[in-house]
Write a structure and sequence with these properties.
This protein is α/β, with parallel strands linked by helices. It has 13 helices and 10 strands. α8 runs antiparallel to α9 and α12 crosses α13.
């Protein structure tokens, strides 16, 4: 019988997003690829410490049990295969179950998202993330300067999403950018009953919803919408989620306030936002990733 990932939530992640390879990466970025490989080989028996997305991955994998495997995590990395050995050894030492990986030795790896049918790609490489988003996959650049996730909710996967250009399309954001806040509010009020088109992360939210619906007494998912919208523009966002038949546990309509301190209270394992200033502020408080989509990221 052939093996398939069709019935699983599939997360593809780079080695730097999962583990702290920043010291090694500085050697690589200096142009010394051979020195980087040598360093990784010399440290083969020294497990890497957790990276920014480690908590998210560890908790998602906790949905797997002896009778069912609902989550698959695949290393998708520009690393060389030798360095890949250290990634797998580090995962084993951290007691997280990884069995699949693709290592491209410097070449863009995003093309392999298609055969994986990935629901999420996390990488520290901005170019790879942009290419993944352009190909239609939810993807975010992990800010490696982020703080690590908290430990207060060991039995909950906590994920926070921005709205426009992340869960939703950037339709409303384009109005805001072109005409300002008043026009944005009028636009959203007039279309309150009309659902927004889906954004790049709608497929991930849908997959998380399906995962949550599967009975698992030991783990659950808690999601939050954290948006710069405020009343009356909040209504269209809520109605859109209702139309999708997707539930979020918390919604924060902040009207332009900095999101970081609110996120610190929510304590997500990861936060996704398209606005660089919001992501940078959030990274001081929680693990954060930049979603390079929509009008705010037009090149």
């Amino acid at each position: 019988m052939s093996v398939s990932l069709d019935d699983k939530l599939v997360v593809a992640i780079s080695s730097r997003a999962l583990f702290n390879f920043e010291e090694e990466n500085r050697v690589f970025e200096s142009g010394d690829a051979a020195g980087y490989m040598r360093m990784q080989l010399e440290r083969l028996d020294h497990p890497a410490t957790p990276g920014i997305a480690f908590s998210l991955i560890r908790k998602l994998l906790a949905f797997n049990g002896t009778s069912s495997q609902r989550v698959e995590v695949v290393i998708l990395s520009r690393n060389d295969p030798v360095s890949g050995m250290r990634v797998f050894r580090s995962a084993k030492a951290a007691e997280i179950q990884l069995s699949r990986g693709v290592f491209t030795q410097g070449r863009p790896p995003f093309g392999y998202l298609r055969p994986l049918r990935a629901h999420l790609f996390l990488s520290a490489n901005a170019e790879d993330v942009r290419e993944a988003l352009a190909a239609g996959f939810p993807a975010a650049r992990v800010l490696t300067e982020s703080v690590l996730a908290g430990t207060n909710y060991p039995s909950e996967v906590r994920i926070a999403f921005d709205g426009d250009a992340v869960l939703f399309s950037d339709e409303a954001e384009r109005v805001f950018q072109a005409q300002g806040l008043e026009a944005f509010q009028m636009h959203e009020s007039s279309k309150a009953a009309q659902p927004l088109p889906g954004g790049p992360f709608k497929p991930l939210l849908s997959a998380l919803h399906r995962l949550q619906s599967a009975a698992n007494p030991s783990m659950r998912i808690r999601t939050a919408l954290v948006t710069a919208r405020s009343a009356p523009a909040h209504e269209r966002a809520i109605r859109t989620l209702m139309d999708w038949k997707i539930h979020v546990d918390e919604a924060m309509f902040l009207g332009g306030l900095d999101k970081g301190e609110f996120l610190r209270e929510f304590e997500p394992d990861f936060f996704f936002d398209d606005q660089t200033r919001h992501v940078a502020h959030a990274a001081r408080h929680v693990p954060a990733g930049h979603v390079a989509s929509g009008i705010a990221n037009a090149v």
